[in-house]
UniProtKB/TrEMBL annotation:
<keyword id="KW-1003">Cell membrane</keyword>
<dbReference type="InterPro" id="IPR011701">
    <property type="entry name" value="MFS"/>
</dbReference>
<dbReference type="InterPro" id="IPR005829">
    <property type="entry name" value="Sugar_transporter_CS"/>
</dbReference>
<feature type="transmembrane region" description="Helical">
    <location>
        <begin position="187"/>
        <end position="209"/>
    </location>
</feature>
<dbReference type="InterPro" id="IPR036259">
    <property type="entry name" value="MFS_trans_sf"/>
</dbReference>
<protein>
    <submittedName>
        <fullName>EmrB/QacA subfamily drug resistance transporter</fullName>
    </submittedName>
</protein>
<feature type="transmembrane region" description="Helical">
    <location>
        <begin position="352"/>
        <end position="372"/>
    </location>
</feature>
<dbReference type="InterPro" id="IPR004638">
    <property type="entry name" value="EmrB-like"/>
</dbReference>
<feature type="transmembrane region" description="Helical">
    <location>
        <begin position="453"/>
        <end position="474"/>
    </location>
</feature>
<keyword id="KW-0046">Antibiotic resistance</keyword>
<feature type="transmembrane region" description="Helical">
    <location>
        <begin position="412"/>
        <end position="441"/>
    </location>
</feature>
<feature type="transmembrane region" description="Helical">
    <location>
        <begin position="126"/>
        <end position="148"/>
    </location>
</feature>
<feature type="transmembrane region" description="Helical">
    <location>
        <begin position="221"/>
        <end position="239"/>
    </location>
</feature>
<dbReference type="Pfam" id="PF07690">
    <property type="entry name" value="MFS_1"/>
</dbReference>
<feature type="transmembrane region" description="Helical">
    <location>
        <begin position="324"/>
        <end position="345"/>
    </location>
</feature>
<keyword id="KW-0472">Membrane</keyword>
<feature type="transmembrane region" description="Helical">
    <location>
        <begin position="160"/>
        <end position="181"/>
    </location>
</feature>
Amino acid sequence: MSGSDAAAQLVPPKTTAPPPDTGQDAAYARGGLTLLMACGATFVAFLDVSVTYVAFPSLHKSFPDASLSALSWVVSSYTVVFAAVLAPAGRLADVMGRRALFLWSVAGFTLASGLCAIAPTVEFLVGMRVLQGISAAGMIPSALSLVLSSRPPEHRSSAIGLWGASSSAAAAVGPPLGGLLVDSFGWPSVFLINVPLGVMLVVASYRILPPRTGPAGRMPDLIGTLAVALGVGGVVAALTEGSSWGWTSPAFLGALLGGAVLLALALLRSRRHPAPAVEISLWRSRKFRVANIAFVLFGGSMYCWLLAAPLFATEIWGYSEVQAGLALAPGAVMSVIASVLAGRYARAHQRVAVVVGGILFAVQCGIWMIGLESKPDFLVIWLPATLIGGVGIGAVMTGLSSASATALPPRLFAAGAGLATTARQVGAALGTAAFAALMAVLGGESGKTLDGFRQVFVMCTVLAALAAVAALWLTDPKREAEH
């Protein structure tokens, strides 16, 4: 060995300087707490939907002079505005910062909830429900994007499973909790319960969430953003209210066609604008595109079933609203469990989770279609089928959320989450419209017979099966890695 070689061995090797701190490590360190905040906001947003349905009869007693069509907007205004603002809100979160939009949205939701509880008129209540819907639309994509940005890629699917379980938990808790609150304290209590939860979320999130978790950028196109919101809102409003407006009425046709035209113009404008209202480039990913299609199909099946199931229990079996909610609770609990388990394994098996889940939910609807009779048969038919369907819902929703999320670049986490959730809500509107149309075709109130509900369950079965078929085109994660 030469002297120069010996000297070289005594010189310590050069080390590469660590990369500059971008704040990502800090975000990862707070991943568990960030997930907790996101799950809390998602739980509150979806809880508000289910408990309001239960409060509807009590609202009618408090506002006897209000028409049923006006009162229906207490429920519909939230869902319509929620769907309309999701995509623009997700785009905005990626620009102004996910933490900032999350905090403002939770604060707005909390304030609107308190004002709903003291509403002196139906018109004021509907206005505050609109504010709730806008705020909820900001909460959901910013919450999911915070979850995604606070976890390394290999842990995102399990986090999505837990995040998705929070909405399933809201579905499980909502009906019995809403019935208990309304029976004990009246309808204002279903809104007041959001206030302490919201205040705790705002305070905790302000202290826990990293100061900046989203990249800065240009504000999205204002004209395109308004066109998207009004377009989606028009389509969803037409589908949701078509049965009460009339399927050939000027209101229905105007809202549907006007919304479709505005959406088309917004998408055309987004193709050329440097800061588009809709990131249509995301749809170039086959995985994201297929996940959105499956969301629409399965959303239609699931929400149509969610409308039909409690109504079947009350109209055919004579259950009370609280009993109907409790009858659905086991399936919702199973959905929570399935969401968590699917989140652990869906990263490498997204397609399997959605296909199998869609088939399981179709099996449940098929069993109900064939097996349910006028005489209550909870233990033999209802309960086993509901448990199967709960597994299916948890697997599908987690699998699709995971598939769409893993197709997104980090800078567009919130925009993609907004688009995916919009697809789900459009499916919900389609399911609502299909249920109302089928009831009308079968004879309005007289359609609420055993045969009428069986026709509804046929449609739910077909849509769930189509969602499973569409999911066959989801890109396999292993193939993505190879390419």
